[in-house]
Design brief:
Blueprint: E1 2-9, H1 27-39, E2 45-47, E3 56-65, H2 72-82, E4 87-94, E5 105-115, E6 129-130, H3 137-145, E7 149-152, E8 166-177, E9 180-187, H4 194-206, H5 215-221, E10 236-243
Parallel strand pairs: 3-10, 5-6
Antiparallel strand pairs: 1-3, 1-4, 2-3, 5-9, 5-10, 7-8, 8-9
Helix pairs in contact: 1-2, 3-4
Length: about 240
């Protein structure tokens, strides 16, 4: 039976989503460990996206093939009983045999949170990057508008892509809230560190260190050196995975 899982996690102490041979501190590895114990056989799950080390998730999706008489709710209860407290399975449901969390994903939404007044967000400090320097929001929005659409985002990728680096950005929303700035990205997919590099580049625009009109030039260069520094992982959360 193919099961679909909705997963939340605080990525602070983990080396990202993807299982790694050199460390046990991954989200995928922890969930597979518990499921393997439950069934007394090795289990492999498929995640919708490979979040970076330190990145959080409210809406990660995964699927797994299991042979068990346990109900979906029994599986969810078992997972939450034995997983670390910073990983939670919000839902487990039976999916069609053809459902694949990554291959069927139509898009994702990420949110980067900046604490412009950290004193107002003491309890959320692990999930926000402190930023008290004034920002030119109109310039940031001007730059963001130039990044919307289908482009080659190699300049905003930490590694040189062997496959296509063309992605589609449908929305970049920059919202000012009390003591906080939120930058929300919605698109077809995201390259390695892409959301963080986009954020770092927009912050350089907002700080006056980069011209907002330089975005097409950065895209055309297809060079990581042309874009800004990657913003710290702690401010980024995978909010939702979209399916058709």
């Amino acid at each position: 039976m193919n099961y679909r899982m909705l997963i939340q996690y605080d990525g602070t102490r983990y080396n990202g989503w993807q299982r790694q041979a050199t460390t046990a501190q991954t989200i995928q590895g922890k969930i597979e460990e518990v499921l393997s114990r439950m069934l007394d056989t090795p289990v492999e799950i498929q995640g919708a996206g490979r979040t970076d080390s330190g990145v959080h998730a409210l809406g990660q999706v995964a699927n797994v093939q299991l042979k068990t008489e346990k109900s979906s709710e029994d599986i969810r209860t078992y997972l939450n009983l034995y997983l670390p407290e910073d990983i939670g399975v919000a839902a487990v449901e039976i999916a069609s045999d053809r459902f694949h969390s990554r291959l069927n994903a139509a898009g994702k939404t990420y949110c980067y949170r900046l604490a412009t007044n950290p004193a107002l967000h003491v309890l959320e400090r692990k999930y926000m990057q402190s930023w008290e320097t004034p920002l030119n929001l109109p310039a940031m929005k001007q730059a963001a508008a130039l990044l919307i659409g289908e482009h080659d985002f190699q300049s905003f990728c930490q590694v040189k892509m062997k496959k296509s680096s063309i992605r589609r950005l449908d929305k970049i929303e920059i919202r000012s809230l009390p003591g906080e700035l939120r930058i929300t990205y919605e698109g077809s997919g995201f390259l390695n560190h892409m959301a963080r590099i986009l954020t770092g580049t927009l912050l350089e625009v907002g700080s006056g260190d980069r011209n907002p009109e330089s975005m097409p030039e950065i895209l055309a260069a297809r060079s990581r050196q042309k874009a800004g520094a990657a913003a710290p992982a702690k401010g980024l959360t995978l909010m939702e995975v979209h399916y058709s």
